[in-house]
Design a protein that fits this description.
mainly alpha, two-stranded antiparallel ribbon, about 70% helix, globular
Length: about 325
């Protein structure tokens, strides 16, 4: 029952918080303005990620208060929770600043590195990797820091780079978070993860906030995630993958998270190659992502969302099936 509540409570909170966030964004003139790359033709408020951040932490506080089991799990993971709270706040504020007036890619990357350093200090890290066909490799402290930083930066920016049409990033992130939760619960029930159940709950909080946000964000959107939301969701997903899957000594620990977010990973991979060939900065926006190509082919934003949601869902089901059969 606690898992159902963990999903539903952030849905309620986002429905309460987001209209107020939308009003604040409008009062400060925080808008995504139309240009040649964008499909909307009117000013759309940003800072949608603020509502997601508030909803996740408020929902966690509620389940903590009303569930003794969650209190016990939270106490066991208290250091990691502190780090995630502080790190996600840094990511959120960085995204809000970028939404308001824009920050350079260098400043944005430095802020993300600070957030990564914070979670590392509080014990969130990849301590080892099971490489396919090889043994489990225990990482040195230095190597652990480098790989953890790379993993979190990759997840954070992958979601940011696919946030190109209404509802796409929030929907895919919601499916990914729900899948991560199911996978972590399966692993926990096999006795493979001591900390797993807390991060299954945390992942459900993220999923609930994402799906609730779609009420405001599904085409035609009334509010956008902005960098405050897309960076935040990627950061959250990267954290859950580390704490809920990469603690395993099985090969699937590395494979499962990548399978679930394979669509944005592939899209970003080709974007990097495309921009390298064009000799432009990797972070420079363009109009050749998967969703842009579909738009040019005559698909509507709703049709694109539903297509990519379904493809992500198929990948999610595959990831769950692989998990079940690999642990038998």
């Amino acid at each position: 029952m606690i898992y159902i509540f963990s999903f539903l409570i952030p849905v309620i909170f986002i429905l309460i918080f987001e209209p107020y966030i939308l009003g604040i964004a409008e009062s400060f003139h925080i808008y995504d303005r139309p240009n040649s790359r964008k499909i909307h033709t009117r000013l759309i408020p940003l800072w949608g990620g603020v509502g997601i951040w508030l909803s996740v932490w408020a929902a966690l506080a509620v389940v903590y208060i009303f569930s003794g089991a969650v209190r016990k799990l939270a106490f066991e993971n208290l250091s990691a929770i502190k780090g995630i709270f502080l790190g996600s706040a840094i990511i959120l504020v960085t995204g809000m600043a970028d939404d308001k007036r824009g920050v350079t890619p260098t400043v944005k990357l430095l802020a993300q590195l600070v957030a990564v350093l914070v979670v590392l200090i509080y014990g969130v890290q990849i301590s080892g990797i099971k490489i396919p066909f090889l043994h489990y490799v225990k990482l040195t402290r230095f190597t652990s820091i480098i790989i953890t930083a790379f993993w979190l930066l990759a997840f954070t920016n992958i979601i940011n780079l696919i946030d190109g049409i209404d509802g796409l990033a929030s929907g895919i992130s919601g499916i990914a978070a729900l899948t991560f939760s199911i996978v972590v619960l399966i692993e926990s029930n096999f006795g493979l993860l001591q900390d797993g159940k807390f991060f299954a709950i945390f992942s459900l909080l993220i999923a609930g906030a994402c799906f609730g946000f779609l009420y405001f964000n599904f085409p035609p959107a009334g509010v956008f995630l902005g960098d405050s939301g897309s960076l935040l969701l990627g950061f959250f997903l990267g954290i859950v993958a580390i704490q809920g899957m990469l603690k395993l000594t099985a090969t699937i620990a590395l494979i499962i998270p990548v399978i679930v977010v394979a669509l944005p990973v592939i899209d970003v991979f080709f974007a990097i190659i495309r921009r390298k060939k064009a000799q432009v900065p990797i972070m420079k926006p363009d109009s050749d992502h998967i969703h842009h190509r579909l738009l040019k082919s005559g698909w509507t934003p709703r049709e694109i969302d539903l297509l990519l949601y379904n493809l992500t869902l198929l990948l999610a089901i595959a990831a769950i099936i692989i998990t079940v059969f690999s642990l038998k």
